[in-house]
TrEMBL record:
Source taxon at top rank: Bacteria
Enzyme Commission code(s) on record: 3.2.1.39
Catalysed reactions listed for this entry: Hydrolysis of (1->3)-beta-D-glucosidic linkages in (1->3)-beta-D-glucans
The name this protein goes by in its record: glucan endo-1,3-beta-D-glucosidase
Disordered: region residues: 1-26, 78-103
GO function term, MF aspect, one: hydrolase activity
Record lineage: Bacteria, Bacillati, Actinomycetota, Actinomycetes, Streptosporangiales
Domain Glycosyl hydrolase family 81 C-terminal: 409-716
Keyword Cell wall biogenesis/degradation: yes
Entry similarity comment: Belongs to the glycosyl hydrolase 81 family.
Swiss-Prot/TrEMBL keywords: Carbohydrate metabolism, Cell wall biogenesis/degradation, Glycosidase, Hydrolase, Polysaccharide degradation
Length: 786
């Protein structure tokens, strides 16, 4: 038995989880916009955004506890005995926003400690890793640093670029009791400090070398932590270095900086502004100066999926305002997964970061293009599989007395549903229709139980935070807003399996409306969605999600199970296609394709360049804002440190084998570390091994299938089908694409196998980029070739 997962727990024992604590408690925050829509009793019009309920069934009478959504429902009152978002003491916590903040409260961001006060004694927030700069809020404003040098800690288990303050942005006389969020974009945030007379607002963002400050009631103030080496001083522009890190201070023209000790001030007036930039070198001042007064005011990613061309085009755009002069645009530092796939020119300017070298693009936007490899609902079953054994294995699963945990929670119940749902198409593929229908019934009934308010399992909408909370919960999903994509991905995935066999069940006025609400909770795309923040569980600039709702750690936010984030993305793709909703399908493709470009690179050092010299591990179990850690949230062994970023194994996991040589090297590194083949979660590792050597994976299964214990979300028939299919079909061939969202190509010693799924209601011809084609009947999966 493996240990339960601690995830983003409140423990503070390790250095990266310790928090700076200072200041006074925050004032109560206002309710998030849109909360009243659920409580007024008025009929809610069709809401915009992915998964939007299209019927009036989303409304409730005033004071009603249960809100109907098609055949399902959620509760707008907290279930008896349940806790919602809370601080470390267990007290309810409200979003820490300004009076003019608009929209539902974002969580699971790199900056979420600004809006979610996890520690009662710290009303400001924890370290913020925007890359290339890092920040820390305090009563006098915002510390700024540039963590350009990695260090190894925890006996070499973690590498980190820790925050160290070089200077602090403020306003003369500022003494704020708290730090609040005034505005936010897809990767930017504006924080506000108010107290002692002045008000300060600073906008910062991932990839932004500038911090943009606006002041009122007090002059600009920048204080260095130690005596700076001033190498440029010309009125409103100062260039200075601290310990080899270089900064430029830009005040308005006609407002020169005045130095007193290590502090610079400038008379900026009531509607003042200034900016501070971290520079690659002093010689780069002239490249930054033209953009000093072009203030970033927002950020958004736009994506377009070209199904016929198997291409995802993403444009990362910042909104800017010329507060002086007429220059717009800015400089943006791109992560490796961005500049490696950019179709926009990238300059020679570069920064260090925990993800490797960041390269700078100039202007108001940049664009990347990625190949979209398909997402299948299931693997085809190999001709050579022993169907009698497969039937027996499926029947043995169904004979289990405890198919679902009791009382069940959003995570473990989800894994149980996923375990059974994965067997539905397998049973169907071997003609075991009785088992198929029984499995479908079990999954459907459990889903309906969760998607109906008032029972032992239910969802509650928290209007203040703009989120769906499932009860019972686990791993802080309700109290800390952790892991919603991990938990809800299992529900969406199970719903997609049911939709494959019963489209009416997934209709908007049946159970599909509730499923769409969960998708919107995790990844709403409409910035004006009245119920949910945009892309809660996905960080567009980082290219992956963040697990912690509050990010209350000195190391920033973290992401452990990247594979469960990918699982949600694959499930969303399939649910969108099976319900005829291209907007949801395209969202899933965007999430899946973008994350696939980061997982191998940042969790496994794929291609090199991410892990620093001297780091002696081939993988990290967790990516942190300040680096990467081989350790995970519980005291697991090596098999779990590797496997936490593989599970659950589904047909949406084929991205782990897009580079079979790399997958093989990662598997071998685990074997070398253990000095043996895996023994914990061995089915997860056999499935991963099959992506580089299907014959070897099948050998291990055949030798041990009668004696091993499956991982909680897996089963023997599913693992048998997976390894036997890949042993026969070969490795994933990602060089061949197709004009559909649902396909895969395999290569076994030069012989290709092609498979595609048709979620539509009419037959289609799928064409592959190497000239092969495949006729796929409506609602079916077809195979041709080897």
């Amino acid at each position: 038995m493996h240990r339960p997962w601690g995830r983003t727990s409140p423990r503070q024992a390790s250095s990266e989880a310790s928090a700076h604590r200072r200041g006074r408690p925050s004032r109560p925050a206002l309710l998030a916009a849109g909360a009243a829509l659920l409580l007024t009793g008025a009929v809610t019009p069709a809401l915009t955004g992915p998964g939007t309920p299209s019927t009036a069934a989303t409304t409730a009478a005033a004071g009603a506890a249960n809100v109907p959504v098609g055949a399902g429902s959620y509760t707008d009152t907290l279930p008896a005995g349940a806790s919602g978002p809370s601080d470390l003491s267990g007290a309810p916590v409200s979003p820490k926003v300004t009076d003019d903040y608009e929209g539902a409260a974002p969580t699971n961001e790199w900056w979420s400690s600004l809006i979610f006060q996890r520690y009662p004694e710290n009303p400001h927030g924890e370290n913020l890793f925007a890359h290339p700069a890092s920040y820390h809020p305090h009563e006098g404003g915002l510390e700024m640093g540039y963590p350009d040098t990695p260090s190894l800690v925890a006996e070499g288990l973690k590498y980190e670029h820790p925050h160290a303050a070089d200077l602090s942005l403020g306003a003369v006389g500022l003494d704020s009791p708290d730090t609040r969020v005034a505005d936010s974009g897809d990767w930017t945030v504006t924080a506000e400090w108010q107290g002692g007379g002045p008000t300060l607002r600073v906008t910062i963002g991932q990839g932004l070398p500038f911090a943009y400050a606006r002041t009122s009631g007090g002059d600009a103030e920048v204080s260095f932590e130690s005596p700076p080496d001033v190498w440029h001083e010309d009125g409103s522009v100062v260039g200075a270095s601290v310990d080899g890190r270089h900064y430029a201070l830009f005040a308005p023209s006609g407002s020169p900086w005045t130095r007193s000790g290590d502090t610079f001030t400038a008379a900026t007036g009531d509607d003042g502004h200034y900016s501070v930039a971290v520079l690659p070198s002093p010689e780069d001042l002239d490249a930054f100066a033209p953009y000093a007064h072009s203030f970033v005011t927002g950020s958004v990613v736009d994506y377009e999926y070209d199904e016929a061309g198997s291409t995802l085009t993403s444009t990362y755009r910042v909104e800017t305002e010329a507060v002086e002069g007429d220059r717009t645009g800015t400089l943006m530092a791109l992560y490796p997964h961005q500049w490696d796939n950019a179709v926009t020119d990238v300059s020679g300017l570069a920064y260090a970061s925990p993800r490797g070298e960041m390269r700078v693009a100039e202007g108001g936007s940049f664009t990347t293009e990625l190949t979209t490899n398909g997402v299948l609902p299931s693997l085809p079953t190999a001709d050579g599989v022993d169907q009698d054994r497969m039937r027996q294995l499926i029947d043995k699963v169904l004979a289990d007395d405890e198919l679902f945990p009791e009382p069940g929670d959003t995570y473990w119940d989800g894994k149980a549903m996923g375990r059974l749902a994965q067997l539905v198409p397998i049973a169907d593929s071997i003609g075991h229709t009785e088992a198929r229908d029984e499995l479908l019934g079990l999954v459907r009934d459990r889903l309906e139980d969760w998607l109906t308010a008032g029972d032992a399992r239910q969802f509650h909408y928290d209007a203040e935070w703009g989120t769906m909370l499932g009860y019972p919960d686990s791993f802080g999903a309700a109290q800390e807003l952790n892991d919603h994509d991990f938990h809800y991905g299992y529900i969406v995935s199970a719903a997609a399996v049911v939709a494959r066999y019963d489209r009416e069940w997934a209709a908007e006025d049946a159970w599909g409306g509730m499923v769409r609400l969960l998708i919107r909770d995790v990844a709403a795309t409409d910035p004006d969605d009245p119920m949910f923040p945009r892309l809660r569980s996905f960080s567009p600039y980082a290219g992956h999600g963040w697990a912690s709702g509050h990010a209350g750690f000195a190391a920033g936010n973290n992401q452990e199970s990247s594979s469960e984030g990918m699982h949600f993305a694959a499930a969303t793709t399939l649910f969108g296609s099976l319900t005829g909703d291209e907007e949801i399908r395209d969202l899933g493709v965007y999430l899946h394709t973008t994350q696939a470009s980061t997982v191998s690179r940042y969790w496994q050092n794929g291609g090199g360049g991410t892990f620093p010299e001297g780091y002696e591990h081939d993988v990290v179990g967790m990516v942190w804002g300040d680096g990467g850690d081989y350790r995970i949230w519980w005291d697991g062994g090596a098999e779990e440190h590797y496997g936490i970023n593989y599970l659950p194994i589904t047909a949406g996991s084929l991205y782990l084998g897009h580079d079979p040589e790399h997958a093989g090297a990662v598997y071998q590194s685990l074997v070398d570390r253990l000095g043996r083949e895996p023994e914990v979660w061995r089915d997860i590792h056999w499935a991963h091994r099959a992506l580089s050597d299907g014959d070897d994976a099948l050998r291990m299964f055949e030798e041990q299938w009668q004696t091993y214990e499956p991982e909680a979300g897996s089963s023997k028939p599913h693992t048998y089908q997976w390894v036997s299919t890949l042993a026969e079909a070969g490795a994933v061939d990602a060089s061949v694409t197709a004009d559909t969202a649902h396909y895969a190509v395999f290569d076994n010693s030069g012989t290709r196998t092609y498979t595609a799924f048709n979620p539509g209601t009419a037959p289609v011809t799928v064409t592959f980029s190497d000239g092969a084609s495949l006729e796929v009947p409506a609602g079916e999966q077809a195979v041709t070739g080897g």
